[in-house]
Amino acid sequence: MPFSHKIVFIASEMYPFSKTGGLGDVLGSLPLALRDMGVDVAVISPFYGRLSTGDYKLRLLVSRCPVGYPWQPITAEIYRADYHGLPVYFVQRGEYFDRRFYYNTHDGDYFDNCERFIFFCRACLEWARRMDSAPALFHIHDWQAAVTSAYLHYWQKIDPFWRNTKSMLTIHNLAFQGRFSSRLFENSGLPPEAWTQDGVEFWGDFNLLKAGIAYSDMVSTVSPTYAKEILTPAFGCGLEGILSKRKADLRGILNGADYSVWSPSNDRYLPCTYSPEDASPKAECKKALFAELDLNPQIEDRPLLGFIGRLRRQKGIDLLITILPELMTMNLGVVVLGEGGLEHEATLMDMMERYPGRLAVRIGYTEDLAHRIQAGSDIFLMPSRYEPCGLTQIYALRFGTPPVATNLGGLSDTIIGYPNPKCTGFTFPEATAAAFLKSIREAVAVFDKPALWEKIKRRAMLTDFSWERAARRYLEVYRELGVDV
Ligand code: ADP
Question: Does residue 290 share a domain with residue 396?
Fold first, then answer.
């Protein structure tokens, strides 16, 4: 049987094999949604030391795939797994990927990230070069995969194999760019003419995400509002210039949620399940969460505010920390699950000691607890300073946990703010502590009007951001590129 795939996703994470955030979730669902629509799609991702391989029939496919970067005769191993019928390939080279973390430790980024991910991209291309026919499209994701399109662009000039292959970059977060010293450009194998302002050069540095923006045939990001925001200096992270040049090829496609994983009606991590038709068991989930987190049962009938996410400025965790003392005077509970900035982690742990029974903080990355917080909280907090799409608020809606969120990026594309008659949550105009607190107060006031609260909760639970809709949009864009799907 000829070996080829029409569309190949290249990404540094894919749930359930690997995940640090939304990127992993997207890769765990979009390719499957496309496959369900009959598209011939495959994914290729790094084989990390902490890969969760489950029983997905992982097997070694190629033991020595020559990569030729950063030196000859370096090779990669290529593995293959089956994820519900979706072919998933892995690039393995122990010295690059067999590490405790994916991209960084608490001390900062791994020093050789540039080398690691150029190696990854080049290995993906070398592996695809072994196919009987080239993929029609490489759909590449974020800076770790972005430079693939630059190689493709130049290799198309010398190798007819690649002649008809297109590339599309999806940006999940513009702030992470893979910016490195110009020195690392020198042995990248890209030609000197790539070193321009319209190419990979960025203020004297080598910028991998910029390479993807410059050389991909199409660029997309994960919500319509963020697609507009990134053309402005406030959100463009310095790349607004080149993005504006590519405006005609820039699309904003809202992410979906995988409701087979994130739905209270079939969630395997919850003590009980519930649905919009009968949401009363949500109270049981709350009770169990109170017990799990040692929260004071006396405030169980008061609102429980949940936060799940990276403890970074982007997510507004500092805003939450600022208003926590005020919140603690309001007869309610707060739960925070996250990891990230050491300073934020330490501050939150200190605060938990100050407010026992009312503030629960769990530092770390715990998939199952994230589900139980979604279900057991009443109000979900998302005071992001920018948010390309955001998935946790989409999950919160489905779990009947109306979000309080900044009105920007994907948050404004997914939440209808009170007092709109169709509201599903609460939004505030800018990420400041005062605006955030005001919005929480508003939400708590509505929580105390049970009939109104139930209506909002139910509407939130009925929102539908399934991947099927998003996958259809991607198909349209693939067709714009001339890919026959
Ligand atoms: P990001 O900007 O980090 O990609 P998203 O909202 O798009 O944010 O996606 C975050 C994903 O990561 C969600 O699935 C969320 O539940 C998960 N997540 C984030 N932090 C944690 C954590 N500390 N423990 C468990 N899951 C987490």
Answer: yes
